[in-house]
Amino acid sequence: MKLTGRIRVIIQNNGSIHKSLDVQQKCSQWESQGLYIFFLPKYCSEMNKIEREWQQLKNHELVGQMFEDEVDLAYAVMDGIEARGQ
Asked: How far apart, in whole angstroms, are the C-alpha atoms of residue 61 and residue 77?
């Protein structure tokens, strides 16, 4: 990472992948480079805007659908996002 003199902040929820050992081991390095990870409080989905979008997608665009595999789900999510944008 190139040092720019700027501070950058990434806001994460408390998903296990965001709190993984790999991430924890990198935090000091990232902070020395001006990148900080901020974790939302637990059970605070109202502060995480993507949670509202996922809720809308699940309730309106994906409701009642079954998917053969992850690829089919991914395409359905992309189609749902596009439909919501229109």
From this structure: 8
